[in-house]
Specification:
18% of the residues lie in helices and 38% in strands. The chain has 4 helices and 15 strands.
C-alpha cells in the first residue's frame, strides 16, 4: 500500500519516497503527494526526481489494481527508475491548487442547491455538478451571489472520520446519487465546512473558503427531465 501523504496534508508539494514497483501501468512508490484520479478530481501531474539528477515526468496518477496502490504514469519514452531507487515526488502545485479551489467550491454549490447530486467533474479552474431537480427553475445570478457570499465569509474547511456503521445510520450525509462512498474499510472521511456542508469526500481541499476566490456560475444546462447541470469557474 502507498502512504497517502496528500490525505493528511493537501498542501504538501513534495515528499521523499522509494520506488516499490515499475510496470506497464506506471511507477509505484512507498509514499506519495500525488492524488490519484477519483471522485471527479483529476490525477496529479508532476515529476519524480532521482538522486543522479534525472527527472521522470508524470503525466497522470491513477489508482492501481490492488488495494491501496497508486500508480504514477510516466510520459511516453521516459527512462524509468528501478525498484529501490530513492526519488523526490513533486506535483505541479499550481494545477493541484486550482483543483483544490474548484473542488471546495463545488461543496459550496451543493450546499446552496437543494437536490441530489447525480454527477460532477473537476477541471483546471472550472467544474460542474449535476443535480436531480425536476420542475425546478434555477437563478444563475442568485447562485453566483450565494456561492460568493460563502467564499467571502471565509469558513474553515476540515475533515473528520466516522465509522461505516455511523454513516449507514446517517444516510442523509450522502448527497451523491450515482456514486456511493467507499465502505468496508471501517471508516469514511467527511469533508466538513461547519454550518455549511458535511458529506463524505476523499478529495483535496483548501483550508478556508476564502482561498477559492471569486467564482462565476458560467452556465446552467438542462440535461434531461430531471438533470440540471451547473457549471462554475474561478474568476
Amino acid at each position: 500500500m502507498t502512504e497517502e501523504v496528500f490525505r493528511a496534508d493537501a498542501y504538501a508539494k513534495s515528499c521523499e519516497a522509494v520506488v516499490t514497483a515499475v510496470g506497464p501501468d506506471g511507477i509505484q512508490l512507498d509514499r506519495t503527494v500525488f492524488y490519484p484520479m477519483g471522485g471527479g478530481q483529476p490525477g496529479d501531474t508532476g515529476s519524480l526526481k532521482l538522486g543522479d539528477g534525472r527527472s521522470v515526468r508524470i503525466t497522470d496518477t491513477r489508482k492501481g489494481q490492488g488495494p491501496g496502490q497508486i500508480v504514477h504514469v510516466p510520459e511516453a519514452g521516459a527512462a524509468l527508475p528501478a525498484v529501490g531507487d530513492k526519488v523526490t515526488a513533486e506535483i505541479d502545485w499550481d494545477r493541484r491548487y486550482r483543483h483544490m479551489r474548484v473542488h471546495t467550491c463545488l461543496h459550496l454549490l451543493s450546499a446552496v442547491v437543494v437536490g441530489g447530486v447525480t454527477g460532477g467533474q473537476i477541471g483546471d479552474g472550472k467544474g460542474r455538478l449535476d443535480f436531480d431537480l425536476p420542475d425546478t427553475q434555477l437563478d444563475k445570478d442568485k447562485l453566483q451571489t450565494d456561492i460568493n457570499r460563502l467564499v467571502g465569509e471565509n469558513h474553515s474547511v476540515g475533515q473528520r472520520w466516522i465509522t461505516d456503521d455511523e454513516l449507514a445510520a446517517q444516510p442523509e450525509l450522502v448527497r451523491t446519487m450515482s456514486v456511493k462512498p467507499p465502505s468496508g474499510q471501517g471508516k469514511v472521511r467527511l469533508l466538513e465546512i461547519p454550518g455549511v456542508d458535511l458529506q463524505p469526500c476523499g478529495g483535496t481541499h483548501v483550508a478556508a473558503t476564502g482561498e477559492i476566490g471569486a467564482v462565476l456560475v458560467t452556465k446552467i444546462e438542462n440535461k434531461g427531465r430531471h438533470n440540471r447541470r451547473i457549471n462554475i469557474a474561478l474568476a
